[in-house]
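Example 4.3 (complexes with small molecules)
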Amino acid sequence: MSAVVESKRISVPEIMAHKAAHQPVVCLTCYHAHTARLLDEHVDLMLVGDSLGMVIHGMENSLGVTLEMMILHGQAVMRGAQKALVVIDMPFGSYEESPQVAFRNAARVMQETGCQAVKLEGGTRMAETIHYLTQRGVPVMAHIGLTPQRVQIFGGFKTQGRTAAEWPEIEADARAVTEAGAFSVVLEAMAEPLAAKITAEVAIPTVGIGASPACDGQILVMEDMLGLNPKPPKFVRQYASMGADIAAAVKAYAADVRARTFPGKENVYQMKKVG
Ligand code: KIV
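Answer. The structure with 3-methyl-2-oxobutanoic acid bound is encoded below.
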């Protein structure tokens, strides 16, 4: 007898269908189980981004993030999320060498986390790999424009497509990942009119970050929009001031402890009367 496990998760084809239905795709990054639980009701897609290197681990950029780190955080998010589609970033060094290496590592990510898709950076140069993966059952979200894993080549985090001369290459990237079989493409730090043009040109949903409101969906780093990053990128709208809230709460707690006014009976084990 075989057991049928019915998944209630949003699927890759459902995300793709947002484009034709003109329904914006709501995406956020997520790295932990408890925040995944909070996000799950409201977002269509959670990305376990390699930005976790900076956000969670205090790294300078994402180049030091390993496959093991992505798998560990991916497992945590999968435990918290029941509904949203979960995508996990392939970290630097885990997919660029060859389509075969990319497949082996992407398969490991999917098998060890249960996530539904992976994301990798690069346009035309990664098209062969995207094709190879999608043909073998690995759904791929592409990522073009500013690709942070190439920060050393770009010489910093710079907006892409500021001059019309740059546009043809970036448009070719968008076409290449679409033709290779990506189910969606992140457009990061891209001049607004170019991101709008690409969105109109390609058949898959574009997900913007610092790109254009015309994109088919948007993604932000959750900690940036919650006010936990003291230096968020300029384009980020903050929806909460959690950094300030945490600092105020910790200050109040520290004052209570120091003044021994720490009030809560609830914070003290009640001993049973002995004898
Ligand atoms: O790593 C990440 O968080 C990302 C998003 C910024 C799209 O790639």
